[in-house]
Amino acid sequence: MTASPPLISLQSVSRTYRTDGVAVTAVRNVSFEIAQGEIVAVMGPSGSGKSTLMNMIGLLDLPNEGAVYLQGADVAGLSEDRRSSLRARSIGFVFQSYNLLARHNAIENVALPLVYCGIARKERLARAEQSLQSVGMLHRAHHFPRQLSGGEQQRVAIARALIASPLIVL
């Protein structure tokens, strides 16, 4: 029996940005694997490259060097559209600043990832209700982000991250 590839694999990944003409290396020569079901914490001081690393794992950014694999597939070889589709179906994000859309209420914010999965509006809203219920926020479904406390916004962001039953939650 053949072993399945790791869910995520980074091999000698580096990411350098140019800021005001100066090269800044955010991540240097990082390698690791994460198996399905594993829980991993990325820790380090401010400015150590945690967000850059998470953006590469989440297919929001690509390394300058090395390779990122998702279930054995090298994501650098995929088009931006394919990476976007893969992100929508496989990766849930809980952003540090929540990234809720101010002009949409909680249920609409939670349902948003399902738009990119091609799911019809009625089904999206039904699943968003279930997701909000799972984080104890169904009673605030029609409130806008500005009407929610920080903790409530975070729970809405968690519901949004989980709605598509992603393989990975960042």
Question: What is the topological layout?
Answer:
Layout (H helix, E strand, L loop, with lengths): L7 E12 L2 E13 L15 H8 L7 E6 L2 E2 L5 H11 E2 L13 H10 L5 H14 L15 H13 L5 E2 L1
Parallel strand pairs: 5-6
Antiparallel strand pairs: 1-2, 1-3, 3-4
Helix pairs in contact: 3-4, 3-5, 4-5
Strand content: 15-25%
- DSSP helical segment count: 5
Question: Which radius of gyration do the C-alpha atoms yield?
Answer: 17 Å
The general outline is globular
Can you write the helix and strand succession as a string?
EEHEEHEHHHE
Main sheet summary: 4 strands, antiparallel
- Tell how many strands the DSSP assignment holds: 6
Describe the structure.
With 170 residues, the protein is an alpha+beta fold. It has two domains: 8-78, no CATH class; 106-169, no CATH class. It is built from five helices and six strands. The protein has helices at residues 50-57, 80-90, 106-115, 121-134, 150-162; strands at residues 8-19, 22-34, 65-70, 73-74, 91-92, 168-169. The strands form two sheets. It has a four-stranded antiparallel beta sheet, covered by helices on one side. Strands 5-6 form a two-stranded parallel sheet. Helix 3 crosses helix 4 (121-134) and helix 4 (121-134) crosses helix 5 (150-162). The longest helix is centred in the C-terminal third of the chain and has 14 residues, at 121-134. The protein is globular and about 45 Å long. The two termini are 31 Å apart.
